[in-house]
Amino acid sequence: MRDLTMSDELLTIRCRENGPFVLPAKFVLVDHLGNAFPLPVGKENVALCRCGASKNKPFCDGSHKTCGFDGAQTAPVSAQSASDA
Ligand code: FES
Fold this sequence. Notes:
Elements: E1 14-15, E2 21-24, E3 45-48
Antiparallel strand pairs: 1-2, 2-3
Bound molecules: FE2/S2 (inorganic) cluster.
FE2/S2 (inorganic) cluster binds next to loops.
């Protein structure tokens, strides 16, 4: 496992409209037993499924495009935007 240290930099996770969560590929994702999922190699960002239809969970495989996933919700307007962080 790579040695990653904590940073004070705030992580931004983007919700794609009707699609996955997208975040920089600088994290370790472990299963319920603590085993790390291998992240896609050579990718700057990783997409995590939020529709539940991916055959490659926890990663997005594009199935959200055909499963009718409705994920167009937006954050409250009063919430601090990522650009203000
Ligand atoms: S969000 Fe893309 S397959 Fe689920």
